[in-house]
Amino acid sequence: MAASFRIYNTLSRSVEDFVPQVPGKVGIYVCGMTVYDRSHVGHARAMVVFDAFVRYLRHRSWDVLFVRNFTDVDDKIIRRANELGEDPVGLASRFIDVFHEDMDALGLVRPDHEPRVSRCIDDIHDVIGKLVDKGHAYVSEGTVWYAVRTFDEYGKLSGQNIDELRSPDEAGGKRDPADFALWKCARPGEVSWESPWGPGRPGWHIECSAMGCKHLGATLDIHGGGLDLVFPHHENEIAQSEAANGAQFANYWMHNGLLTMAGGQKMGKSLGNVINIDVALAEFPAEALRLYYLQNKYRSPLPWSGDALPEALGMLSRLYDAREAAEAMGGEGDADRIAKEMGKTASDVLRLGRDFEARFHGALDEDFNTGGAIGAAFELARAVNRFADHKKARKRGGPIVAPALGAFALLADGLGLLGRPVSEFHAEVKVKRLKALGLDEAAVEGMLAERSAARAAKDWARSDALRDELEGSGIIVMDKPEGVQWRVRCVAPDSATA
RNA sequence: GGCGACAUGGCCAAGUGGUAAGGCAAGGGAUUGCAAAUCCCUGAUUCCCCGGUUCGAAUCCGGGUGUCGCCUCCA
């Protein structure tokens, strides 16, 4: 039985109860990438947010059908292809492969369908044909335009009024400046397809109407995308789809906020302030990126800085270390009885662990409040650490922290965080951070061995000198009762992402 | 010019009518050979400003200010 949840609907500008068309099923369509270059961490936010959302819905027993498209026919792709002397669809296909590499590296689940414009030309023709037949579109010099004034509800998503728009000085046979192209007449040297209106290619907006309805029916449960797509893209999708099908296009519109740079500007290729996903992931685990995104409300602007990932990595380590401490605890027996014997720190962990699921679901069911859900995880982590200081915790605390371990598993299943073995996490961090700092593991190990020898001989001066040297280059040394451990400092002085 | 969103401690941030989660940073303490990690303590009499509604508002309403996004491609 799928759990109910509430979600902010851009259409109504309010949080609403989610009501599916078919009980237990959710059809979700998310606007994907225009593939002519590598994707950056701003794109990654959108991808991670919707990945986490889909994971969560499935975790809550929803039967989710997830569709995310590729725009592989587009002005920018054609321009780039011409620059490189490459076939546009081929170039796009190449960047689709790159995108998949990035998404796999980010640990995302693949959508159920990833339609490409170039493979849905017939579906696009069908929609355009309907619009022409119904008088919502007209042909002018081989281009098919959508007549926005034929759609009374135009502007209902974005609140825009056709007469108040800054009209672009666009020429080209439009009857109204706000009209937009459904089918663009082929120009010499451009990729084109035959159509009932002559050779050409699809306009930008029509693809989503065609591909969304192809896989999910005339009405989508949820349509997602970046906040910057609300107008004109999503507004136009509504106009096309609803005029063609006579049915509401999407019941819920979900928009993720944009990544902003220092000074508040959004990250964008045209602004030259982008950090590509592969660059960020070369230095930090994908999970740190995920935590950084999910700490924040998906709808809010999210400030990016060079400190973002180091800080997120530090937070992630804190959670993993708490989980490790809990996993190391043994013993068996009745948790309540043991908690009574061991006192308040024990009963606190037990209680927080047991309450976690309700808090976790409560936060996420209310407009996907990932920040609140993660906050609860940190409270639990502190309680675990506090309990781990208890002298008998390691030997007998197992039953006490069992609910906490279950809580951490929820984080993995519901949001894709904290799902790996702790050792694997630390190993990845070590490799990536050593590389980012330009350090060699063998050299580090050598110095540590020398330092251990000095410590064994109680040569504190030598030992501390070696540690100072290591720390100067970014290695943090921890002398634990069970032996020496070391970590690579998160913050890199010469970090490429700073 | 039009449309929309947001404004919470040094920074990030949850909370949408009942009296401020969480993270980072900072200071003090415990622990440690010294550190690191961890734990404990300290910090907004207050949630941009001004009015209003209410027994009671960060949370609702009105006005103002500021920031950002969109109106051209954009996650």
Give the structure's gist in a few sentences.
The protein is α/β, with parallel strands linked by helices and 498 residues long.
Q: What strand order characterises the main sheet? A: 4-3-9-10
Question: Structural class of the helix and strand makeup?
Answer: alpha/beta
Radius of gyration using CA atoms only? 27 Å
Percentage of residues assigned to helices: 40-55%
CATH class of the largest domain: Alpha Beta
CATH architecture of the largest domain: 3-Layer(aba) Sandwich
% residues in beta strands: 5-15%
CATH topology of the largest domain: Rossmann fold
Number-wise, the strands total 14
Query: Termini distance?
Result: 46 Å
Number of domains: 3
Number of helices: 17
Which descriptor suits the 3D outline?
Answer: elongated
Task: Annotate the secondary structure layout.
Blueprint: E1 6-9, E2 14-17, E3 25-34, H1 41-59, E4 63-71, H2 75-84, H3 88-105, H4 121-133, E5 137-140, E6 143-146, E7 180-185, E8 200-202, H5 206-216, E9 220-226, H6 230-245, E10 250-256, E11 259-260, H7 277-283, H8 286-295, E12 302-303, H9 308-327, H10 335-342, H11 344-365, H12 370-388, H13 393-396, H14 398-415, H15 422-437, H16 441-456, H17 460-472, E13 475-480, E14 483-488
Parallel strand pairs: 3-4, 3-9, 9-10, 11-12
Antiparallel strand pairs: 1-2, 5-6, 6-7, 7-8, 13-14
Helix pairs in contact: 1-8, 2-3, 4-5, 4-6, 5-6, 8-9, 9-12, 10-11, 11-12, 11-14, 12-14, 16-17
The chain binds one RNA strand of 75 nucleotides through strand 3, helix 1, strand 9, helix 6 and strand 11.
